[in-house]
Amino acid sequence: MNLDENIQKIIQAVLKKWKLIIIFALIGAVLYVAYTAQFTVDRFTSSVEFLAYTVDSSEDLSGTDAQSTDSQRISETSKMNYAMKMLSTYIEVFSTNEFNQFVANTINDAHGTSYTAGTIKSSMEITPVEDTAMFRITVTTTDADLSYNIATALTECIPQAMSETNNGLVSASVQDSPQKAGEAASREYFKKALFGAAVGIVIAAAYAILRDFLDVRIRSASDLTERYEIPVLGSIPDFNKRSSSSKKHGSHQKTA
Fold first, then answer.
1. How far is it, in rounded angstroms, from Cα 43 to Cα 139?
2. Could you write out the three-class secondary structure of 126-176?
3. Among 164, 134, 139, which residue's Cα sits nearest to residue 150?
4. SS3 category, 53
5. Which of 77, 111, 147, 207 is most buried, taking the most CB atoms under 10 A from its CB?
């Protein structure tokens, strides 16, 4: 049996069990959604996006002689390149315990809470936008209000921290303000249902294929010819089946 015949046989085995596949897909979707609803911890996300930019300065940001900058300002391209170059440094600053405690203190003062630097640090994910001077901070916690409050505090703390670092040569402006999450990002029932259905389809298809390939019983003359490549010279009829059929027919005539 060549490759094409094997593929054809697999397709036929799957198609013969299409009802089973649909049932397994529905079961998988329902089970995965139920599991998500019962055991998944709600996680809420708020994000804020910043643009890093170079503040006008008499200092040379491109590394040339400092005296030459007294009569000529650096180009906008040089400013952007410098901001992009320094971006990784500032991102490291935002990961320090000192900065995260600064954010925690800002939130605690505004809302009367007692969050620590560890709470803030574990909730943040900082992602630079490739080939730009922009970076995005995503805040994820189990409380929608807390995620939003942290993201909002960052809009105040990050520009202030950047102004106090490297003589304030680079600052940041908010390009996309944080929004309060309306629903838990960890739920996503539709995606979970699709994933559960896909798992159910795979299981059902694997069952159908294995059952078909592992079935060694001969059910027809074509099975015998295909498996052993031996011509069929004749076949013996099922006398028991014919006999029972005749009895039923005779009984029917007698009753009539």
1. 10
2. EEECCCCCEEEEEEEECCHHHHHHHHHHHHHHHHHHHHCCHHHCEEEEEEE
3. 139
4. strand
5. 147
146 Cβ contact list (under 8 Å, min separation 6): 44, 115, 123
Residues 161-211 pLDDT 10s: 988 887 778 889 999 999 998 777 666 778 888 999 999 999 999 988 888
What angle do the packed helices 18-39 and 189-214 form, to 10 degrees? 140
Both ends of the chain: CA-CA distance in Å?
Answer: 54
Token pair in block for residue 60: 């040379």
H or E segment to which residue 225 belongs = helix 221-228
pLDDT in tens, 159-168: 999 888 877 7
> Could you give the CA distance from residue 87 to residue 73 in angstroms, rounded to a whole number?
21
